[in-house]
Amino acid sequence: MESIRETSERAWNGDKVVVVEPFIRPGEIHEVVPGIALVSGFGLSIGVQTGDGLVVIDTSGRNHGEAVVAAMRTWDESPVRNVVYTHGHFDHVGGMPSYDADAERRGHPRPHVIAHENLPPRMARYAQTAGYNATINARQFLSRPVAPPQMVANFASPRLPDETYRDYHVFEQGGVRFELRHGKGETDDHTWVWIPSQKTICAGDFFIWRCPNAGNPQKAQRYPAEWAQALRAMAAHGAEVFIPSHGSPIFGNARIQQALTETAELLESLVSQTIELMNRGVRLDEIIHSVKAPQHLLERPYLWPLYDEPEFIVRNTWRLYAGWYDGNPATLKPAAEASVASELAALSGGASRLVARARELVASGDLRLACHLAEFAFLAAPGDPEVRAARSEVLRARASSEASLMARGIFNAAAAETEDASA
Hints:
Number of strands: 13
Low-confidence stretches: none
Mean pLDDT: 94
Shape: globular
Oligomer: single chain
CATH superfamily of the largest domain: Metallo-beta-lactamase domain
Number of domains: 2
Distance between the termini: 46 Å
């Protein structure tokens, strides 16, 4: 098995295999530097040795918890005294029951969990909307229209923190100092951890070896401007080791500085362009098609738009500053979509005419416009087999043309929904 430094080097040089999926098997353990190890899962779990047991930063998800803990125990069998949640997403907190069960088996005290004060309200919201969150994750990750029942459990009953903090929190364990700092980014409860003795930052999801997840179209508000501020604060610390909760570590201050400042630059560019156009009274539609991410940044291996993408970040910036009204008066209090579709179908000569034109547009490469027409046809005549087939064709074509997981997932899930209903 190659070393973690070799994996990191390949990722930095743009090896797509290790950028996309650096740790294939859940439960692989890698010592990053002496005294710090990461274990792979759907979300990494990071162990830090001290003079008095372990500190664990993130726990991976529920499905990989047992494998993660078993791997961690091949490296260090001492008690886990403290656990830090970087934020409340299930792939970071879901493995906690496995750490608790391990402590009980060994006769160790239950680990003390620390998180930001916004995390418990997030957990309450997840429990309240468990079915919805499971469904949108099924679309996003599995390209399914409905979640398998077992996914709902990921959101239902997480282990809450024993201690919360607001802006800044310090604790020491076994002579090792841990500095926790809050920043808004992918969530409003995000924490990043600075370990001065190791010159190491554990960044949670502030950095994911992708274009930042700052625009997710199905999920709660993201904070791209504050995200950039947090990245620049990290860059000021002189770290020599940088460990995200997804993807390979980065070694060396020069590379860390570059990755953090360029990620901040991408977010700042998207936010500033969007706000400039908002201040001029431009509609959301025009903004979406006008704002452009700096191309040289999107070419960086750690900013490829493979998960989220700049267009979604623009939309989320609008939502943060401008609310949900998009500037089009017809959408303020709109007619039902099916009514609009039926009227357009009637004007054009029927849903079959819309379908025919949608297929022509696919052939010419205009998938965005084709998708509109296919959806109008489907809403006007949802029971028509030709319409359903065309909708599926257009959506599959859209999915295959997209780089980001989020776009592909939504388009493929919609196509699957059409195909399932036709069966």
